[in-house]
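Sequence only, no structure available. Ideas?
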Amino acid sequence: MAKEIKVIKCPNCGSVNKIELKPDFYKCTSCQTEYFLDDNDVNINYNHNYNHHHPFNNTNPKALKVIGIVIASVFLFIMAITFLSSIFSSKSSNNNYSAYSTATKPEEDQGYYTNRYSNISFLQSSGQPIILILENRRYKSNTNQQQDGTYLAFYNPVKKELVKAEKVSDKSLSSSDFKFKLFSDGNIYMVKDKASLLKLDTENLKTEDVGKKFFEANNELQIGVATMEFVYSDNGDGLVILTNDGKKRYYYPLIQKLYTEKEYYKANNGFDTLLPNAKDKTIYFFTSESSDYPDEKLQLIQLTYKDNGPGPKDITDRLRWSKDYGGSGIFTDRDPYRKVLVGRWEKDRGRIVNWRDITPDRLYFAPSVLIGEGENLVIQFRADANTKSPFKLQKINKDNGSVEWTAALPDGANVESLIRYKDGFTGVNDRNQLIVIDNKGNITSNYKLD
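Reply:
I predicted one. C-alpha cells follow.
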C-alpha cells in the first residue's frame, strides 16, 4: 500500500523534528520518543524512551521554589551590572570618541588580491628612492568592491613601506594598457588606455593629465585625438597619434613637432636630420647571438652616439656579428663579404660616433645591463651555460672593464630593474621583492611585497 502521509509528526509531543534511525523508524529530537510507520494501515507506533533523564521530574515543590528564587536573583544582578557598565562606557566614549569608535566598529577584511605589472623607479629631491608599480587590486570584502581597480603603488624600498597608492581606473589594466616612459626632460609620462597622457609629480606622488595642453599646442591636433601610444623605447620622446579624422601622425610634444609616417622615418636617423642641440651620449649593452657566426661570444659594448634630445631617434642598442656584402640584394657564401658588428648602414641609422668591447676577455651567459649611465655600470649574468645556474650582479668599471664588486642572487631570482641612489642601488626582482644593495655590493634587504 502506498504511503500518503504528508507530514510525519511525533505521536507523543507533535514535533516534526526527527532523525531517521533506519527505513520507517524515527527518533523525535524534541522528546526523544522513538516511533515507526506501519506499512499496512499507515499507523504510527511509538515507544517512549525512559532513558532520557529529566532532573526535575521528582523534585518537590518547595525545592523548586528555592531554585526559582536563586535564578531570579542571579538574573537581576546581571541586569544591574550591565546597566551600570553602559553608563560608564557612555561617559568614556564622550571623552575619547575616536578610540571608542575604532574599538567597537565591526571588523572588516581590508585585504586584497594583487596582480603586479610594469614598474619604474626615480629619486625624490630628498634623495629617497621610490619604486612605482602598476597594480590591479581585487578586494576580499564585498563592502570594499568599489575599491577594485588599477592603482599606481609608490614603494620606498629602503624604508620597506608603501608610501601611497593612487587609483587610476575602475577597470583592470595591464602593462599593455598603461605604460610608463622617462622623457629627456627628466619627467615620467604615462599613457592610460590609449586615451590619456599623464605626467607624474614625483614629489607629491600624483598624476596630472597634460594631453590637452600638449595637443592644443599643435593646430593639426586641435581636431582631437582618438588614440595614442608611445613610440618604441629607442625612438625617443614621441607618441603615435590617431586623430579624430582618422590620420596617423607621430608627435613629439616637447618640441611640438608633428610628422607623417614618411617624415618620421626620415627624421629619426642620419646625421643630417639632427636638431641643433644634439649631444654625444654613451650607452652600454650586450651583443645578441648571431646566426652568421653562432660561435661568436656575447660582448659588453660601450657605444657613443649623437643623441637628438627630445626629437626623433633610432638608438642602436642591439648588435650582432653579421656578413656585410657591401649592398642590398641576394647573396651566397661565394660572394665576397666582410665580418662586421657595426656596418655603414647601422652607423648612419643610429648616428654612431664610436664603440668598443670593454671586457674583451670575458665570457657571458644570459647577460643584461641593469644600469648603464654616468659612472655606473651594473650587469646581470649567469656564471655558466646551465639555465638553472643562479644570476649574479656585478659593478663594472666603465673605463677599464674591471670588476668592482659581485653580488650573488638567491636561486631563481632575476632582477628586472635597478636604480642608483646615494647609499647604493635598489630595484625590483621577479619574485615581487624590492632589493637593496649597498655601495660595496652587499644585498642588505629583500622587501617582499604582500
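Residues 61-104 form one domain.
Hope that gets you unstuck.
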